[in-house]
Amino acid sequence: MTNPLLQLKDYGQSVWYDNIDRTQLVSGQFKQMLEEDGIQGVTANPTIFQKSISSGHAYDEQMQQLISQGKSTNEIYEALVIRDIQTVADLLRPIYDSTEGKDGYVSLEVSPDLAHDTEGTISEAARFWHMVNRPNLMIKIPATPAGIPAIHRTLSDGINVNVTLIFAIESYHAVTEAYIQALEDRQAAGKDIKHIASVASFFVSRVDVLVDPLLDKKIQATSDATEQQKLKGLQGKAAIANARLVYQDFKQIFGTPRFEALKQAGARVQRPLWASTSTKNPTYRDVLYAEELIGPETVDTMPLETVEKFADHGRVRDSIEDDPEGARQTLDSLEQIGIHYAQVTQQLLDEGVQKFADSFHQLFAGIDSKKNAIKAGQATR
């Protein structure tokens, strides 16, 4: 049987792997995934690196070298991460070349501590871009109010950007405007726009993770069986509805005469990327979000578990445009019962920034712990 992951290409969707682990790079497992599962890109974030670096011993040898050189914790972190990013970028380079820059990217995130610092984000994005020194790198910048102008400036400077932590449709509009304006600015300055790439990473499952418990409370608060059934019918629906409405806006925004003029000059669309597509609720189908958001000019970034499950039993169909009116009604119904879209998406953005910051700090604490353990071992010899 054909691997369902490979069939997604026929529907215009690219699968990117949401993980970087040096053990997989060394063992050849990652290269095997490129060949067998059709993986066409890679994303990473502080949580992923925290898990990878803190577990096992794949990074110990390099860490020992860096410690012996007197490197700081931040210098050690950057050296470990940059090596992995460069390794992955080189493994993906044939895909980047064969797709003429559509796929084959690896993403590296700026520090979550800069989420509300425009100038700091711009500076770190440029620094990482030059450190990695690969054309198929994307710098991840969150769609916070301070992140939007940083996204515009970074793209204007010719650096590829993966815009992360998008939850609200309004934020998505600001992100697309930043991208298009950056292309227009470069074109007006006589600069290249053919080799600028960007994706807009819309986080999916976290919406249901927040909304479903709110619905549970409302179900428990009423004894009306009809009302309970109505509320239960909304569970597991908000995330997909939100993403499907984003896709409708994507088609409209990148189908305007304004963007068509850029397209004629070689510009690419900023593809929606579905992030957080692993299913968190065990009562839902384990590939629910991956199956329901398939369509042209999209990217789905999957963790290992979702890659394996979709390869095993994913059902492939052009699903992203299923019932957009029903998607609008879902969000309207939530609004009517007091689950407000603006509040939900703002909470998710705030929590998303905090979760990545927590992982980032845990990662640094883990590096400090390993530094101390290695130094203690050296002292007792």
Describe the structure.
With 381 residues, the protein is of the alpha/beta class. It has a single domain (4-41, 110-131, 139-349), classed as TIM Barrel (Alpha-Beta Barrel), CATH 3.20.20.70. Helices cover 58% and strands 11% of the residues. It has 17 helices and 8 strands. The protein has helices at residues 4-7, 22-27, 29-36, 46-54, 60-68, 73-98, 118-132, 147-156, 169-188, 205-220, 225-232, 238-253, 257-264, 288-292, 304-313, 324-336, 341-379, and strands at 13-18, 41-43, 106-109, 137-142, 161-166, 198-203, 271-275, 298-302. It has an 8-stranded parallel sheet. The N and C termini lie far apart (57 Å). The relative contact order is 0.14.
Short note summarizing the structure:
The protein has about 375 residues and is an alpha/beta fold.
> Care to count the β-strands?
8
CATH architectural grouping: Alpha-Beta Barrel
Tally of DSSP helical segments: 17
Characterize the largest beta sheet: strand count, sense, and whether it forms a barrel.
8 strands, parallel
The overall pLDDT average reads: 94
Instruction: State the shape.
Output: globular
Element layout with pairings:
Blueprint: H1 4-7, E1 13-18, H2 22-27, H3 29-36, E2 41-43, H4 46-54, H5 60-68, H6 73-98, E3 106-109, H7 118-132, E4 137-142, H8 147-156, E5 161-166, H9 169-188, E6 198-203, H10 205-220, H11 225-232, H12 238-253, H13 257-264, E7 271-275, H14 288-292, E8 298-302, H15 304-313, H16 324-336, H17 341-379
Helix pairs in contact: 4-17, 5-6, 5-17, 6-17, 7-8, 8-9, 9-12, 10-11, 12-16
Features:
TIM Barrel, alpha/beta, 381 residues
